[in-house]
Amino acid sequence: MIKKAFIFDLDGVIVDTAKYHYLAWKKIAEELNIDFTLEHNELLKGVSRVRSLDIILELGQIEASQEDKNKWLFQKNEDYLSYLVDIDQSEILPGVLPILKYLKEQNQAIALGSASKNARPILEKTGIMPYFDAIVDGNDVSNAKPDPEVFLIAAQLLGVLPEDAIVFEDSVAGVQAANIGKMTSIGIGEEAILYQAKYIFKDFTHIETSFIASLIK
After folding, report:
1. Staple 201 to which of 32, 56, 165, 206, CB 3.0 to 4.6 Å?
2. Tens digits of per-residue pLDDT, 109-155?
3. 18-84 is classed in which CATH architecture?
């Protein structure tokens, strides 16, 4: 059997923690009198924490010192972590576990490729860490998506060529990163937003194991 690398983003793909990022950023924005909506939040998907803050400050046309930026970045992370204290397996998005189980049964290589610096504790708290053969997160990369670094490192750790890697992403930047890395991109979310992906599914409940089997072959 051909061995492929199946690489998953975290927030909004495996777990429903993207909402906590939004709440933490919205709190910062409100303190700065910036109107920050769910539509604005789309701009932050797959983007590093530092760049996310810059985007929010640009929305409010605010110039800030590095000292202030560092203070807000720390505050945002502390607020986000406070939301994660009580998370459990209920945060795993519908349809994800059956796909992970199927990939394991087929002896396929599975990796996480996420910008999050809190990926490991999230995987542990939700009980799905054992499914992953490699984890590449925000602590392991220097270039944010759409740079493909996070996915290229994951494929390398799994011993698989980029063209044999399949990436599940919910962000435009993540889909672009997979495409730039010459990998098969699968968008999880809205077709109008993720139209650059090779395949698009609204969520994992729409992905049949027969489709995964076709990717393996």
Report:
1. 206
2. 999 999 888 899 999 999 999 999 999 998 999 998 999 999 999 99
3. Orthogonal Bundle (1.10)
Q: Alpha helix (H) ranges present in the chain?
A: 18-31, 38-41, 49-59, 66-84, 96-105, 119-125, 149-158, 172-180, 209-216
Cα maximum dimension of the chain: 56
Domain-wise residue ranges, the chain: 5-15+89-216, 18-84
Catalytic residue among 11, 137, 164, 170: 11
Under DSSP, the state recorded for 81 is: H
Active site residue 11: yes
Tens digits of residue pLDDT in 18-59: 889 999 999 999 999 999 999 999 888 878 889 999 999 999
Per the annotation, the verdict on 137 as an active-site residue is: no
